[in-house]
From TrEMBL:
PANTHER family: INTERFERON/INTERLEUKIN RECEPTOR, INTERLEUKIN-22 RECEPTOR SUBUNIT ALPHA-2
Domain Fibronectin type-III: 6-96
Functional note: Receptor for IL22. Binds to IL22, prevents interaction with the functional IL-22R complex and blocks the activity of IL22 (in vitro). May play an important role as an IL22 antagonist in the regulation of inflammatory responses.
Stretches assigned to the Interferon/interleukin receptor domain: 108-212
Protein family (similarity comment): Belongs to the type II cytokine receptor family.
Organism: Vireo altiloquus (Black-whiskered vireo)
GO CC annotation, single: plasma membrane
The protein, known as: Interleukin-22 receptor subunit alpha-2
InterPro entries (alphabetical): FN3_dom, FN3_sf, Ig-like_fold, Interferon/interleukin_rcp_dom, Type-II_Cytokine-TF_Rcpt
Top-level taxon in the UniProt lineage: Eukaryota
Lineage of the species this protein comes from: Eukaryota, Metazoa, Chordata, Craniata, Vertebrata
Keywords in alphabetical order: Disulfide bond, Receptor, Repeat, Secreted, Signal
One GO molecular-function entry: cytokine receptor activity
Subcellular location: Secreted
Pfam families per the UniProt record, alphabetical: Interfer-bind, Tissue_fac
Amino acid sequence: VLENQDLQDSIKPQKVEFHSLNFNTTLRWQPGWAREARDALYFVQYKVYGQSTWQNKDDCWGIRSRVCDLTRETSDIQEPYYGRVRAALAGVHSKWSLSCRFTPWRETMIGPPMVTVVNSNKSITVKLQAPRSPYERKKGSKITMTNYYDLLYQVFIINNLLDEQHRVLVYEGKDKVIKIQDLRPGVSYCVVAKTYVPMLDRSSAYSSRQCTVL
């Protein structure tokens, strides 16, 4: 019995955490500390905070992967959720490992906008597209994150003659098309942008760089 108890403890999943970007939400965990824990199978359940019964996640029942997609199960973005995982090895089940409470609206990370750059001789026109959620309208198009948050765009310009890290904020606001004027012909410029959520005081990562020579 003692050996089983030891095995139970040593294969118990560690660090069960929700990860979420634009409401694409996964539950992730680390294997238990025993070396053989790497061969364990995992079982995932979830529930809304306050509910008494846990729901099995069928696609993540007896899996080897340490990631489980719970995007659909957490689609009520104002609700707080819990996830939990247990491991099984050689007929022995570990105890459940519980995540922290997760509320998608409050905790999902917002991605950067998509940036397109069009240049004319002394100016650059920057076109921005909000990141999209995984949720669809009736006609099948993905709902953008501006439906869920008051988003601002922050647009930065990098003059490649100057230091690489020298990003200048040239615009902050809601416009999707921005014109940056009075630039020097013959100079290479790059544009990056972030999404900013004032209500949560949270910024996205930078978008990928879009570069152009005037």
